[in-house]
Fold:
Amino acid sequence: MSESSRDLPQIRKEEIIDACARLYESKPFKEITLRDIGAQTSFTRTSIYNYFRTKEEIFLALLQREYELWTVDLQTLAESGRALSADVFAVRFAQTVEKRRCLLKLLSMNIYDMEDGSRIENLIEFKAAYKRSLEALDRALAVSFPVMTAEERNEFIYTVYPFLFGVYPYTTATEKQIKAMERAGIDYPRLTIVETVARLAIRLLPSENKEP
Structure:
């Protein structure tokens, strides 16, 4: 079997995930169908079932890929090999989050649907990717803040990760949502992802590392 033949299943999977990602930029999860995804690929819609059983499995694979890409950036942050001030680390960490808008959107809207509609083997593979992101962030914290204990790093991680579920809706409101908030008398703070995440991160990092 040629190398190209061995790689074909992964190439097909990536094409399906790419098609899903493109559709998700303009359509909500509930409106996207397997037919829609299939129409965006170079092969027949029925061929999708050779790789994914449900729409939810495709979206879970997309979320897994987002975590894998984020992990690469977190590893780069860790591999700087030197301590950073809390202020600099907070911004750099927030910038890695900003690059993963699709991850934030999926977390805020569809995580239960994706996990419930996927086979256990897919879910295990996803959780393994999720775990690698936890480990990469822990390593980045250990490098920049050697004064932090394992317990303190764990507290940072498990405060930030749940927080990420709310970042997208608080930083990416639609015009309809903004209009409704204005009419309800809510002062909508127009914060960026970097501002939102960095504000939390700086509060969780050791005070002695903060710039005056």
Remarks:
- The domain at 1-51 is CATH 1.10.10 (Arc Repressor Mutant, subunit A).
